[in-house]
Amino acid sequence: MDARPSRPLLWVKILIVAGMFLAGALLYPRLPDLITTHWGISGQPDGWMPKAYGTWLLPGLALLLMILFPILSRLDPKHENYALFARTWEIIQIAIVAMMAYIFAVQLYASIHPEAATLVGRFIFLGMGALFVVIGNYMGKIRQNFFVGLRTPWSLSDPEVWSLSQRFGGWMFVFGGLAFMIEAAIWTYEIPVFIAVLLLVTVVPIAYSYLLYRARKQ
């Protein structure tokens, strides 16, 4: 199998990143001198940057990630395994870059329409939820590597623990993503939901991976 990206999927990433730069250039004259670059969990802005720099921050990071993704896979000690989930790896990359483009769109909209700032938190939760659901649906297809997936000492030491851990982690990502999306609709318990989802997609799968490893060694 060929681990190199397929041309259609590669072009999807290129078009997304190019679209970000194009949107920034077209809307640049309408942006305020200071644009918001960060919002807290509640959706309130807490970071700003001159538009000469802030406009290009997310497009630049998306471009950097697009360049780094294939480099990291080649540097991975288990790089030969990427051929076993090449399409999944490409889809995950696209999902991450698309999420950055979505946040950039929210940033531009909120900068041009300050009255919409109260909706930013809901938009971010919705985007994060969608990203988690997409990643969760593909986690079970990820093979052992050091850069993507649920990488614990126990999953990396046992292919079976790895496979079962990814499937379990995938379900946790899907549930967490759905929780984010529901919260984006009701917007009532944003901080508790954020903490609960964080635990659901990190601590719970790590504990599962450890317990599974222990059970297999007994």
List the helices and strands and how they pair.
Blueprint (H helix, E strand, L loop, with lengths): L6 H21 L6 E6 L5 E6 H25 L10 H27 L7 H19 L14 H5 L1 H28 L3 H12 L1 H15 L1
Helix pairs in contact: 1-2, 1-3, 2-3, 3-4, 4-6, 6-7, 6-8
Radius of gyration: 19 Å
Question: How many strand elements?
Answer: 2
Q: How far apart, in Å, are the first and last alpha carbons?
A: 36 Å
The biggest beta sheet is recorded as: 2 strands, antiparallel
Shape: globular
Number of helices: 8
Which bin fits the share of residues in helices?
55-70%
Output the strand order for the largest sheet. Answer: 1-2
Secondary-structure element pattern, one letter each? HEEHHHHHHH
Percent strand equals 5-15%
What class, by secondary structure content?
A: mainly alpha
In terms of per-residue confidence, which ranges show pLDDT below 50 for 5 or more consecutive residues?
Answer: none
Number of domains: 1
Mean residue pLDDT: 92
Describe this structure in words.
There is one protein chain. By secondary structure, the protein is mainly alpha-helical. The protein has one domain. The protein has eight helices and two strands. It has a two-stranded antiparallel ribbon. Helix 1 packs antiparallel against helix 2 and helix 2 runs antiparallel to helix 3. The two termini are 36 Å apart. The relative contact order is 0.12.
